[in-house]
Amino acid sequence: MIYGIGTDVCSISRMDAAERRHGDRFAERVLGAGEIVEYHRRLAKVRQHGIHYLATRFAAKEAFSKAIGLGIHSPMRWRDCEILKLRSGQPIITLHEALKDWCDARSLRFHVSVSDEADTALAMVVAEVNPSR
């Protein structure tokens, strides 16, 4: 059963401006431990790839917060929701701390899709009640 659906669109140039203005502080506030490693890897290789990565993760976390109905309010914290990838490239949501506990208590599981093109990053998250729990 669907619990909630969230979508978000993010301006990549807005993320670029935030990164230029605040440096790593912005990314470190938004990205979790696993994401920050990938962000720095991409940024070092081709700066714009890092910015696109940051924008897709930002959009996915906004979409996630909408799908669970909390917005960016406790227990939803930016760094406790990570958008990682399986070996196949499929994006997955990995949760930590109180946010993980909150979602586990509701038996939620998630499906996430992210995309970016030119100056736009897009994400969609579907939260569903896990019937096997």
Number of strands: 5
- CATH architecture grouping: Alpha-Beta Complex
The largest β sheet comes out as:
3 strands, antiparallel
Order of helices and strands: EHHHHEEHEE
The CATH homologous superfamily is named 4'-phosphopantetheinyl transferase domain
Helicity level? 40-55%
Q: CA-to-CA gap between the ends?
A: 12 Å
By DSSP (H or I, 4+ residues per run), the number of helices equals 5
Percentage beta strand: 25-35%
At the first level of CATH, the class is Alpha Beta
**How would you classify the helix and strand content by structural class?**
alpha+beta
**What is the fold-level CATH name, i.e. the topology?**
Ribosomal Protein L22, Chain A
What form results from the Cα inertia axes?
globular
Average pLDDT level: 95
Looking across the biggest beta sheet, what order are the strands in? 1-5-4
Stretches where pLDDT is under 50 for at least 5 consecutive residues are none
Total count of domains: 1
- Provide the gyration radius in Å: 14 Å
